[in-house]
Specification:
alpha/beta; TIM Barrel; two-stranded antiparallel sheet; 12 helices; 10 strands; binds indole-3-glycerol phosphate
């Protein structure tokens, strides 16, 4: 038997001998959609809090221990955690996702630039409770397929768009949760008015709406909520603080009219 045939024979044996990856490693799911849609006390918006080591727009952040940051977010009242798993631009990995998820009780969003349904399946197998899909970069047929794959794998799909045209495409492709990214990923320019302008047009048709990027103050949170957001997605402004969890707690307390 030649070498290549031996390798293939071994690979087939190994595959036959092991359980499917998803069945072996996938922990019980956590409901990202429910977390995002939960009703909070008056004037306190749901926050998906993000961990990342660096970003193209923000440079490096002073928090190498993502697990500690995520635990701080949970203690402060975040509704879910977003973990950047892209390596090249954000210094992240699926290992980070795994470690963060094991350390918190909240649903975890895999934030990456996914290009194929296979990666949606792998995200589910690695324990992601939700995946980000970027509508602007995925053509209609592929977007529809990836949303359907997420549904079949029982992971939530947060479908992001930067313009109302792409948000419309997201809805037409079957998106239930739509995120409006205030940051233009091609120029990296951020304008927090973007989500405020686009979300009201989508409110009646999207099950959940998320305002993403560039949000810093309790007033930003309140404005997003008033424009129809169920949740805000926040990273950089928290990660600039020496204690990101405390920064989040402060923002949520400032927005809570009962305190
Ligand atoms: O750190 P900010 O400005 O608070 O933004 C968080 C999040 O919205 C941003 O990281 C993001 C939104 N969509 C993305 C797509 C890929 C990478 C990153 C992103």
């Amino acid at each position: 038997m030649n070498l290549l045939a031996e390798i293939f024979a071994r690979k087939r044996r190994e595959l036959a001998a092991r359980a499917p990856l998803s069945a072996r490693v996938r922990p019980p799911g956590r409901d990202f959609t429910a977390a995002l849609l939960q009703r909070r006390p008056e004037a306190v918006v749901n926050v998906i809090a993000e961990v990342k080591r660096r970003s193209p727009s923000g440079g490096p952040f002073p928090h190498p221990d993502l697990v500690r940051v995520a635990q701080g977010y949970e203690a402060a009242g975040a509704c879910a955690i977003s973990v950047l798993t892209d390596d090249v631009d954000f210094g992240g990995s699926l290992e980070d996702l795994d470690q963060v998820r094991a350390a918190v009780g909240l649903p975890v969003l895999r934030k990456d630039f996914l290009v194929a349904s296979q990666e949606v399946e792998e995200s589910a197998a690695m324990g992601a409770d939700a995946v980000l899909l970027i509508a602007d970069s995925l053509e209609d047929g592929l977007l529809r397929e990836m949303i359907a794959t997420a549904k079949a794998c029982r992971v939530a799909a947060l479908v992001e768009a930067h313009t109302s045209a792409h948000a419309e495409r997201a809805l037409a492709a079957g998106a239930e949760l739509v995120g409006i990214n205030n940051r233009d990923l091609s120029s990296l320019r951020t304008d927090t008015a973007t989500a405020l302008r686009v979300m009201p047009r989508l409110r009646a048709r999207a099950r959940g709406l998320v305002a993403e990027s560039g949000l810093k103050t309790a007033a930003d949170f309140a404005a997003a909520q008033a424009a129809g957001a169920d949740a805000v997605l926040v990273g950089e402004s928290l990660l600039r603080d020496a204690d990101p969890g405390r920064a989040l707690a402060r923002l949520l307390a400032a927005g809570d009219g009962t305190k």
